[in-house]
Amino acid sequence: NKGIQIFALLTFSALIASASAGLLGFTQSAAFRGVLLCHDKPAAHVTLKLYDDDTGPDLDDLMDAGESDAYGRFALSGSESEFTPIDPKLNIYHDCDDEYTPCQRRITIYLPKKYVTQGGRPDKHYDAGVIQLAGKFSGETRDCIHR
Predict the structure, then answer these.
(1) 127: closest CA among 29, 40, 53, 30?
(2) Sequence-distant (≥ 6) Cβ neighbours of residue 44 within 8 angstroms
């Protein structure tokens, strides 16, 4: 029956739309912490963003955002609902050794899979350690809009 086929198609389409909007799936979480330095001095007020790295046409999902404190310390955590395992990454936007160049330097650190937790609250933190922002990093880019 054509009515049943159309209903089934609409229902399937709604499920796909809900899944891509994060309404279905299972909740997973991740957390990063560490210390940022610029020439061995604390890198204060550096912007950091924790994303679930998505491929294809889907934009990365922002899980948390913040700044390093006066001592360069930071801690971010967040969760996302996905059908597949999340791929957390930390973007660090800074101006160390770059005061007058437009936009900011962006460094991306990908979280190892073993630090992804099932559920909305991470039970382990990935300790990125002390990160010296002076110098150049492989894969480093420039970013004006912090995405």
Answers:
(1) 30
(2) 67, 68, 69, 70, 71, 72
How much is the pLDDT for 127? 97
User: How does pLDDT run across 57-95, given as a tens digit for each residue?
Assistant: 678 899 999 999 999 999 999 999 988 899 999 999 999
How far, CA to CA in Å, does 58 sit from each of 14, 20, 22, 61, 141? 17, 8, 11, 9, 21
Return the C-alpha torsion angle 117, 34, 146, 29, nearest 10: 10
DSSP string of 74-89?
EEEEEEEEESS---EE
Of the candidates 32, 124, 22, 131, which has an alpha carbon nearest to the alpha carbon of residue 77? 32
Q: List the beta bridge partners of residue 67.
A: 47
